[in-house]
Amino acid sequence: MLASDDDILIKAQDWKAAGKGVAIATVVETWGSAPRPVGSHLVIDEDGNFLGSVSGGCVEGEVVSEATDVIADGKARTLEFGVADETAWRVGLSCGGRIRVFVERVD
């Protein structure tokens, strides 16, 4: 069962209140076959804990990894995954679709 937007935002607020660094990843664009729709969220804390979903499988592992960098340096990133990318098979998006995910630190 996927977490609701409210659950995700409450978790982000809880982690911030506990003094943790937090980032939110949001699906901002999709093409073709994509596992999650535009607007889907994943919240990540500085320890790599997360709630929500932007894709599934190895893509989320890559997003979590990038999010810890975003938390550390404060620089938002837009990540793109798709079958045409050399990383498509490595991160598990071989379904023919593409997704773009925006990752930003919660300050």
List keywords for this structure.
5-stranded antiparallel β-sheet
What's the arrangement of secondary structure elements?
Layout: H1 5-17, E1 22-31, E2 41-45, E3 50-52, H2 57-73, E4 77-82, H3 88-91, E5 98-106
Antiparallel strand pairs: 1-2, 1-5, 2-3, 4-5
Describe this structure in words.
This protein is 32% helix and 31% strand. The mean pLDDT is 87. Strands 3-2-1-5-4 form a 5-stranded antiparallel β-sheet, with helices on both faces. It has one domain. The protein has 107 residues and is an alpha+beta fold. The N and C termini lie far apart (28 Å). The chain has 3 helices and 5 strands, in the order αβββαβαβ. It is globular.
Helix content: 25-40%
Gyration radius over CA: 13 Å
Structural shape? globular
**Which regions contain 5 or more consecutive residues with pLDDT less than 50?**
none
Overall tally of structural domains? 1
Strand content: 25-35%
